[in-house]
């Protein structure tokens, strides 16, 4: 998977490639779909949600530009797979999931795998985690109708946020916070479930 789907399509960050090779994706997928765990496609995980295709997980992680040791906010824990990839590189990950059943399942898997640097919250991810802000990086794993200003406010100066934006047509945006404002860059067209 790492070679044919990710490196071959342009992801080059060694830390991202190592994390993708290490995290056992099949553990985050419902039993009946585990044979498809390493296919380059999104898969349903229940509650109307999906686990993103491996390439998108790697691409979004690389776009955050993590060097190690950062404080990262993830909006939309989902299966917990993206959380694990982030936790392999970042110092701490603060992850928020609105669907309680998904949050509990992801937490059980991640704690079972020994990730002690992940903090969990069940609630509205669009509100972020204000008492822990600012964050060096923010990853949003569901599509927002527009850029969430609340999350931009929680980004540290010099920080980066990756967020899919749009309803019918969606684009993945990279947002950098500078001393005088935000720089927004469109990365690619995507298709995510809506941010609830």
- The CATH topology comes to Rossmann fold
Element string (H = helix, E = strand): HHEEHEHEHEEHEEE
CATH architecture: 3-Layer(aba) Sandwich
Number of domains: 1
User: What is the CATH superfamily classification?
Assistant: Vaccinia Virus protein VP39
Number of helices: 6
Sketch the major β-sheet: 7 strands, mixed
Oligomer: single chain
| Share of helix, binned | 25-40%
Number of strands: 9
CA-based gyration radius: 15 Å
Q: What spatial form do the alpha-carbon principal axes imply?
A: globular
Rounded mean pLDDT is 95
Outline:
This protein has 196 residues and is α/β, with parallel strands linked by helices. The chain has helices spanning 2-6, 14-22, 54-64, 81-89, 100-112, 149-153, and strands at 43-46, 49-51, 71-75, 92-97, 118-122, 135-140, 155-165, 170-178, 181-190. It is globular.
Can you put this structure into words, describing what you see?
The chain has 196 residues and is α/β, with parallel strands linked by helices. The chain has one domain (2-190): Rossmann fold (3-Layer(aba) Sandwich). The chain is 27% helix and 30% strand. It is built from 6 helices and 9 strands; from the N terminus they run H-H-E-E-H-E-H-E-H-E-E-H-E-E-E. The protein has a 7-stranded mixed β-sheet with strand order 5-4-3-6-7-8-9. A two-stranded antiparallel ribbon has the order 1-2. Strand 8 and strand 9 (181-190) form a beta hairpin. Helix 2 (14-22) crosses helix 4. The longest helix is centred in the middle third of the chain and has 13 residues, at 100-112. The model has no long low-confidence stretch (mean pLDDT 95).
